[in-house]
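Intended use. Records such as the Rab-GAP TBC domain-containing protein entry shown here are meant for training and evaluating sequence-to-structure methods. They are not intended to support clinical decisions.
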Amino acid sequence: MFQLIIMGATCSSKVKSSPVLSKRRFRVKCRKNIWDSKLRKYSKSIKTLKAKNPCLFQGLLFLGAPKEYRWEAWKVALNYKPQHNNYALLRVYCEENSELSIKKDLGRTFPEEGYFEEGSSGRRSLYNILTAFASAHPEIGYCQGMNYLVGILLLVSDGNESEVYGVLEQLLGELGFSGLFDFGFPCVKELCSKFHSGLNKYCRKVSMHLNEIGMDDNLWLVKWFMTMFAYSLPFSKVVRIWDAVFAKGMHYMVNISLGLVTLIKKSILEKDFFQVAEFLPLLETVKLDTDFLIRCSKQFKVSSELEDYSTDTDTQYT
């Protein structure tokens, strides 16, 4: 029988496998039972769990948050504080160039999701949040890739526009993810450098092949990092990866990238430049067990040290 075990907790006694219940669905039920079991000891409060046992919270989030708890878990992981959210008070005067770029990207944001179709409340929320952020934080502004981050946050939060704005401020401010969009993209370059160092160490054949065919990071790896994989993978896989990244930190995107390349190395090695350039940016058709990917990612020893890209994103309003 398949078992999912973490910190002494097991779900095998509570959920029995059956021919009808797939392994994936079984894991989902196990995960929910483990979270429920742990939360009962902390008044069923994720915030209390993190405050009293941060290591357990990190372990649970890395294991994967159940759909019912994911948004609350992300808010707690990112230190979101409702009292610091001034979204409702903003007077939005977005620069014309930023607004044009935002409008252009709206239709490109998860077009397969009906929630973001033209004229929908989801697309309006996406526009509102991006313009508000670009207006309130001209030092960061708007950059392609932010639309995917906000899109994921909206989908996970069930469209809670105000909370998504506050979480975005935390993500791009105190937690340093704004470094993905700073002028010159220094954080992206640092992540790429760490990735190639790891690739040369752990998967040298792929590293040599990418060098031999002259593959440019801008064609694929930059997209992976700037959108936190939201451009390249299906929603269900992206949110599971975000669980792990929010548990470990921004540097863990390098581990995930190394894990991804390791799992698809055979496909990479048999392709030429044009085939790789078409294959790596969009991996939606790749059969990928995200839980296995995340377990695989733990084997890579990647330094967690990054330059400090955190900024003050306390919203200025008048």
